[in-house]
Amino acid sequence: MNSDIYTLHQGNSPLLISCPHVGTQIPADQQARYTARALQAEDTDWFLDRLYGFAVERGATLLVPRHSRYLIDLNRPSENTPMYAGQNNTELCPTRHFTGEPLYRPGQAPDDAEIRRRVAVYWQPYHDALQAELQRLRAAQGHAVLFDAHSIKSALPWLFEGTLPHLNLGTVGGSSCAPGLRDRLAAVLAAQQGFSHVVDGRFKGGHITRHYGQPASGVHAVQLEMCWRAYMDESPPWRWDAARAAEVTPLLQALVQLMIEWRPQ
User: Fold this and answer.
1) Contact yes or no for 174/200 (Cβ under 8 A)
2) pLDDT tens column, 11-33
3) Rounded CA gap, 149 and 223, in Å?
4) With contact defined as beta carbons under 8 Å apart, do 107 and 182 qualify?
5) What CA–CA distance (Å, rounded) separates 70 from 93?
6) Boundaries of every domain in the chain
7) What beta strand segments (E) does the chain contain?
8) pTM higher than 0.85, yes or no?
9) CATH number of 6-261
10) Measured distance CA(89)–CA(75) in Å, rounded
11) Most exposed of 24, 91, 168, 183 (fewest Cβ within 10 Å)?
């Protein structure tokens, strides 16, 4: 299913994979606002639809937006409250790169009216589709598992100290999914040696994980923030690395298969 806002591959398992930062498009009528650097959309969660493509064949639903997070961040609440209090954050309509430099030309950042327009045109349809798919899966399967897939450069001093582990699993401190699911996913990560990992570290889960993860209502949500170095080059032009991707894919397959097969107790 395609729209101007997203692509949706509907599956028949309980798992829905959301990739809210894969989009790269900035509409032509907005491009003059941005710096030349911003138009390159460097903070995209590059290639995740490709990396998780195997999941569609296994019955997962995959939801992917078309537009860049620089236009509007689908993983922020529409009222624009900060995700991580007391730390640098990017906004609902971000104004800075992850390195801290401005995205917009002087005086061109969106005002309140433009932000509301972007919410209506871009943010709301994605979330309507996300909510509808979760309801469909829960009705068909008895529960739904939402896997919010992200990736990021390993070191970004403006956002966090040091270098992130390869794999950063977030469950909002254990509140966005059943404890049994969190424990089993953590066990898969702990059983391998190739990739460093942490559970509920710096990235505990953004708006999508926090808002939709309601285990008491049959929706279990987890976020995975994966470092680019696990599957791609971390410097321009942000190239896919087939050898690295091949190394991490079996681990991702194990996590996805677990979420497909898992059932609440």
Assistant:
1) yes
2) 999 999 999 999 999 999 999 99
3) 6
4) no
5) 7
6) 6-261
7) 6-9, 15-18, 61-65, 144-152, 167-170, 197-199, 219-227
8) yes
9) 3.40.630.40
10) 12
11) 183
